[in-house]
Design brief:
Pathway: Carotenoid biosynthesis. It comes from Nocardia tenerifensis. Keywords: Carotenoid biosynthesis, Membrane, Oxidoreductase, Transmembrane, Transmembrane helix. This is Phytoene desaturase. The chain is an alpha/beta fold. It has three domains: 1-91 and 226-307 and 446-498, FAD/NAD(P)-binding domain; 112-223, no CATH class; 310-437, no CATH class. 33% of the residues lie in helices and 19% in strands. The chain has 14 helices and 20 strands. It has helices at 21-32, 70-79, 113-124, 126-151, 163-171, 178-185, 189-194, 214-222, 234-245, 289-297, 337-345, 395-415, 426-431, 475-490, and strands spanning 13-17, 36-40, 52-55, 58-61, 90-93, 97-100, 106-109, 225-228, 249-251, 256-261, 267-272, 277-279, 282-285, 312-320, 328-331, 355-358, 373-381, 418-424, 457-459, 462-464. The strands form five sheets. The chain has a seven-stranded mixed β-sheet. A six-stranded mixed β-sheet has the order 9-2-1-13-20-19, covered by helices on one side. The chain has a three-stranded antiparallel β-sheet with strand order 10-11-12. β19 and β20 form a beta hairpin. α1 (21-32) runs parallel beside α9 (234-245) and α3 (113-124) packs across α4. The protein is globular and about 65 Å long. The N and C termini lie close together (7 Å). The structure holds flavin-adenine dinucleotide. The site of flavin-adenine dinucleotide has 37 residues, from α1, β14 and α14.
């Protein structure tokens, strides 16, 4: 039986700080339960990290490039009696991605099992295709066991983990190494990379991540990917519009600069930069806690641990011509284990980088002028906690570095035909309030995950949501965190869980 702690005082008026995916999710669940909700957002639009530059007819997103687990979005809309399709169209991204390798070969990853197996048979042979089907069944079991027990619920310490689920996860090898588990199934190095690199989504190296993170591989490869029509930024706009239609009030361009609390530390009101005092019975804080809490509360909560952050990224965004083959392309370097050591342990850029190129115009051509494309290229780099690189001074050199790598990988002609170009470095992420200059928040080391991640209930009537708290980073996790924050206020919505 679940015994999550919830607020015991009256909670009719709720103030939410931040209109990213976490804040929007909390707003919809709270509004759906009859609460009066105000969302304060310091920028001029909803979306948070799902932000966009608009220039010369291009809409260049510089946050999440695809949506996974759209069922979580359906549940959010359903919380206010709405359906996703009435607010936004989700376009399937097929293949989910194309993986390119230094030997010139590629492998497409499809969400549908049979199609994925056929592609693996084409590229790697029948034995590896059979291994894929076995591995897929294995990661599905890990997901079905680990997700409800470890991710999709509020946790109040290690004691709230369901012992049966933990035993099953252990029996599935979930606490062993991720890369070792993948290697037991696949002989082909390329498949060992494809089914382990998702550790990077949660800020760890495949060789040091626990195998239970294969649930991310499951969400990514078997769950598939979608692009909201109009780009990723169109999704938070649609969520905000649905919330507004149900009576949620949004205050844009109004940063919360302080939380007024009682002598016992209970939230009373949010004070905004415009001088407004917004009273409430409870607050949901979705700004990164490490950055925001000392300012908002005037102190660092005692329980807040020192955290290790995920690696950061360099982005090169451009609008150009070309004929991209796939929406999502991952280019793997030939080095593997050592490349993560450089990035995470030594704080150096990858000497043989693996990187992502996303061209959303393959799925939604209206994001660029006719016949042109949006390119989002992402290179993992060290965060400011481990790396000692002067990113501001190196901007021009970095652009050359990324362009050289891209040219060597077949993007030379495109780079000669640019209309718009932007670079984002860890220094830019830092100026956007990302601790350690990484937009990927606290790394999901085992000691910073599940019951060991900064807890969402701050005590009294304040609750955290967003990538910096449980369950973690990414659009699905931020969306879940908003629902979990709402559940701290209204109680949890389902009854039968392990
Ligand atoms: C380059 C990049 C690529 C990514 N790729 C993917 C991907 O492909 N798939 C995926 O699932 N995830 C991806 N992510 C991660 C994902 O985008 C984030 O984890 C998620 O959007 C975080 O949502 P959030 O609501 O927790 O935080 P945020 O989006 O950061 O929202 C917090 C909001 O709070 C506001 N705010 C902060 N302080 C205050 C204040 N004092 N007063 C008022 N407002 C305040 C901010 O302006 C912001 O709008 C990517 C992120 C980046 C940057």
């Amino acid at each position: 039986m679940r015994t999550d702690r919830i607020m015991d005082s009256p909670t009719h008026r709720i103030v939410i700080i931040g209109a990213g995916f976490a804040g929007l999710s909390a707003a919809l669940y709270l509004s759906g339960s009859g609460r009066k909700v105000i969302v304060c957002e310091k920028t001029s639009a909803p979306g948070g990290k799902a932000a966009v530059f608009e220039e010369k007819g291009y809409r260049l997103g510089y946050g999440p490039s695809v949506l996974t687990m759209p069922e979580l979005i359906d549940a959010e809309f359903a919380a206010v009696g709405e359906q996703t399709r009435d607010w936004i169209e989700l376009l399937p991204v097929e293949p989910t991605y194309r993986a390119h390798f230094p030997d010139g070969t590629h492998i497409d990853v499809f969400r549908e099992a049979e199609r994925a197996a056929e592609e693996i048979e084409r590229a790697c042979g029948g034995t590896e295709a059979a291994a894929y089907l076995r591995y897929r069944r294995h990661v599905e079991r890990v997901y079905r066991c680990g997700f409800p027990a470890f991710v999709d619920r509020n946790l109040d310490g290690i004691g709230s983990l369901a012992p049966l689920a933990m035993a099953r996860l252990a029996a599935l090898g979930g606490f062993g190494g991720l890369q070792a588990s993948v290697n037991r199934y696949f002989q082909d190095k390329r498949l060992r990379q494809i089914f382990a690199f998702q550790a990077m989504y949660v800020g760890t190296a495949p060789q040091s991540a626990r195998a239970m993170y294969s649930m991310v591989t499951y969400m990514d490869t078997a769950g598939g990917a979608w692009l909201p029509r109009g780009g990723m930024h169109a999704l938070p706009r649609a969520l905000a519009a649905a919330a507004e239609a149900k009576g949620v009030r949004f205050r844009y361009d109004d940063e919360v600069i302080r939380l007024e609390t009682s002598p016992k530390g209970r939230f009373r009101a949010a004070i905004t930069a415009s001088g407004e005092r917004i009273p409430g019975d409870a607050a949901v804080i979705t700004a990164d806690p490490a950055v925001s809490l000392p300012t908002l509360l005037g102190r660092r909560p005692r329980s807040f641990p020192r955290l290790e952050y995920a690696p950061s990224c360099l982005l090169l965004l451009f609008g150009a011509g070309g004929k991209p083959e796939a929406h999502h392309s991952i280019h793997f370097g030939s080095r593997w284990t050592s490349t993560f050591e450089e990035l995470i342990d030594e704080g150096k850029p990858m000497s043989d980088p693996s990187f992502l190129v996303s061209t959303p115009t393959v799925t939604d051509p209206d994001l660029a002028p006719e016949g042109r494309h949006c390119y989002f290229t992402l290179f993992p780099v060290p965060n400011l906690q481990t790396g000692d690189i002067d990113w501001s001074a190196e901007r021009a050199a970095l652009r050359d570095y990324m362009q050289n790598v891209l040219s060597r990988n077949g993007y030379g002609e495109v780079l000669d035909d640019l209309d718009v170009v932007r670079t984002i470095t860890p220094a830019d992420w830092l100026s956007m309030d990302c601790p350690a200059g990484t937009p990927f928040s606290t790394a999901h080391l085992f000691r910073q995950s599940g019951p060991f991640r900064p807890r969402n209930l701050l005590g009294g009537n304040m609750v955290l949501a967003g990538a910096g708290t449980h369950p973690g980073v990414g659009v699905p996790m931020a969306t879940i965190s908003g629902r979990l924050a709402a559940e701290r206020i209204i109680g949890h919505r389902r009854s039968a869980e392990g």
